[in-house]
Design a protein that fits this description.
Length: about 280
């Protein structure tokens, strides 16, 4: 029987594991499904290589892990007939990419996604790697004193924060910024800063530089020094892993326990990825 025994190989001390011996085009046996889910909870992001999946097979695999949700990231197109698959696309003439800063997807929503299954369809000759950072490792490495302070805090996440501090090549015009700020003014949510992961039960640091604006009940100015410290701390290289894509590679990240960052270092080339987001269930308190 296919897909009954899988081989899980960690790729760094803090985050990431490659999973071998599984063909995701085939239905997943229950044991393989459980092993993959446990690996995701433990390592934060899991990688598969050389998968030849149709959009329907990509969707079927993702649906094993939860309800798939429509991804309304404004610039995403969809492959024909698959509205639930988002195209993360950068064309040769574009200098902007999607996800080119450390973030957790949709942390400005009341229930951020459980995770996303990203499949490489077309890649530049070089560049376009994705970085991942473990928010388990980031939390664990803090002092007991700071952990105690963070355990009692909540933070405000806003979609519009993403337009502040973009690099010049990803910057948007003042007009676009004003329009987007108006369109997305209500996309805000408040989450615990150091919640327990709902499946592993481990504590994670849940703030990110793209969407976290301030601590709940604090001003932005008061929040900035501690948030800046946490953003720098969490991006320490030893908490990260850099994934180099090949066509047919898949990265499946747990959006509750890792940040990700899509490198924008391949101007003049095309990169096309298919992304499926899986609905989250919120944090255990
Ligand atoms: C994203 O979901 O932020 C994009 C990741 C990538 O394209 O590598």
């Amino acid at each position: 029987m296919k897909n009954t025994t899988i081989d899980i190989r960690p790729v760094s001390m803090s985050t990431g594991a490659e999973i071998h011996g599984v063909d995701l085009a085939e239905p997943l046996h229950d044991r393989a499904y459980r092993d993959i889910r446990n690996a995701l909870n433990e390592h934060g992001v899991i990688f598969f290589r050389d998968q030849k999946l149709t959009p329907a097979q990509h969707l079927a695999f993702s649906e094993r892990f939860g309800e798939v949700e429509f991804d309304d990231t404004s610039t995403l197109g969809n492959p024909d007939g698959y509205p639930m698959i988002g195209e993360v696309r950068k064309e040769p003439e574009s200098t902007r990419n999607i996800g080119g800063n450390w973030h957790s997807d949709h942390s400005f929503d009341p229930l951020p996604p459980l995770g996303a299954v990203l499949l490489a369809r077309e890649l530049p000759e070089y560049g376009g790697d994705t970085l991942f950072a473990s928010m388990y490792a980031a939390y664990d490495a803090l002092s007991d004193g700071l952990k105690k302070t963070l355990d009692s805090l909540r933070a405000v996440h806003a979609k519009t924060r993403a337009y502040v501090g973009l690099t010049p090549e990803r910057a948007i015009s003042a007009g676009e910024k004003a329009q987007l700020s108006q369109d997305f003014a209500t996309r805000e949510a408040v989450h615990p800063v150091a919640p327990r992961h709902p499946e592993s039960g481990r504590k994670v640091l849940f703030v990110n530089p793209t969407y976290t604006v301030r601590f709940d009940g604090w001003t932005e100015k008061e929040s900035a020094p501690l948030l800046d410290y946490l953003f720098r701390h969490a991006a320490r290289p030893e908490f990260t892993y850099r994934f180099q894509w090949r066509e047919g590679s898949i990265a499946f990240w747990d959006n509750r326990s890792v940040w990700h960052y899509a490198l924008n270092d391949y101007h003049g080339s095309r990169r096309l990825m298919h992304r499926i987001c899986i609905k989250g269930t919120g944090f255990a308190q």
